[in-house]
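Need residues for this backbone.
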């Protein structure tokens, strides 16, 4: 936690640079800030499973929260909401939107910032037989309130991925509920166990090209699903953009990406990407960021 504030400040500073990565970060910060201003911080959760895309999203979200809660953050680095972004209201009729993506990792000039309502703590959590709850310690030193989070595991998850998620709960002060089973059931249980009480929007690390990736930036789930506003701040990022962010800003990521894995599912259906096979490397595989053909990101998934 000690190095997190400087790391988050680096994200805010990087967003001021007018190159591709800087503009992508700035757009993501503005989208998150706009939804926070509209719904309130206490009504937002993040879907996090430890994949590279979710890791980028979590770091960006934490940067927005840091900018809002740390009063020493320079005003020119604070993301401001944009009125050009239309946050949809909860549907009253059958919408055409899809359910929350199950991806494995899966602006105009902004107006003056509007105040975000002071966050109120979620209702006290209640136990649930299918959930594992990780709550940050009260003395964690976090610069912002606990991040409401849900972790929906794949069947037969990688132990290294679980370990990385657990390390993130400590690093980012996440109030995280871990569920197995299907996504729809997990979301329903998340609401039912009290951890998701009052949640109206869920940040999702979906990118176009992912399964279920052809979605709007903001869209509600289908009426047959638990009702959330799905928020996709990195929807238009590429595989290369993700790695540019992680490597340049020195963001910790799951160690599996350093031994040839480029997309993470279950231990029973995921292998290192065959395009990264390198007998001369220590592990026998090149790291994920060396993949040249992004269209083969899921070549290790079966």
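Answer:
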């Amino acid at each position: 936690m000690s190095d997190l504030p400087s790391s988050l400040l680096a994200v805010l500073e990087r967003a001021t640079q007018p190159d591709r990565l800087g503009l992508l970060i700035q757009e993501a910060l503005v989208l998150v800030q706009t939804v926070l201003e509209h719904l309130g911080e206490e009504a937002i959760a993040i879907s996090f499973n430890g994949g590279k895309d979710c890791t980028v999203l979590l770091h960006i979200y934490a940067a927005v929260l840091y900018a809002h809660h740390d009063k020493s953050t320079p005003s020119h680095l604070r993301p401001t909401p944009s009125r050009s972004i239309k946050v949809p209201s909860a549907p009253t009729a059958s919408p055409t939107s899809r359910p929350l993506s199950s991806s494995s990792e899966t602006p105009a000039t902004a107006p003056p910032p509007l105040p975000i309502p002071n966050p109120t703590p979620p209702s006290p959590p209640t136990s649930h037989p299918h959930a594992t709850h990780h709550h940050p310690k009260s003395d964690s030193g976090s610069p912002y309130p606990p991040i409401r989070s849900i972790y929906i595991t794949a069947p037969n998850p990688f132990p290294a991925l679980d370990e990385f998620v657990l390390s993130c709960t400590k690093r980012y002060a996440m109030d995280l509920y871990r569920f197995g089973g299907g996504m729809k059931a997990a979301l329903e249980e998340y609401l039912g166990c009290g951890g998701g009480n009052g949640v109206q929007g869920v940040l999702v690390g979906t990118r176009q090209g992912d399964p279920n990736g052809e979605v709007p930036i903001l869209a509600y789930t289908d009426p047959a699903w638990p009702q959330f506003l799905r928020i996709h701040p990195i929807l238009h990022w590429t595989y290369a953009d993700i790695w540019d962010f992680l490597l340049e800003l020195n963001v910790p990521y799951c160690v599996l990406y350093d031994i040839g894995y480029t997309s993470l599912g279950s231990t029973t259906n995921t292998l290192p990407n065959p395009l990264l096979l390198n007998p001369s490397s220590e592990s026998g595989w090149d790291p994920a960021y060396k993949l040249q053909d992004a269209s083969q990101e899921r070549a290790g998934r079966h």
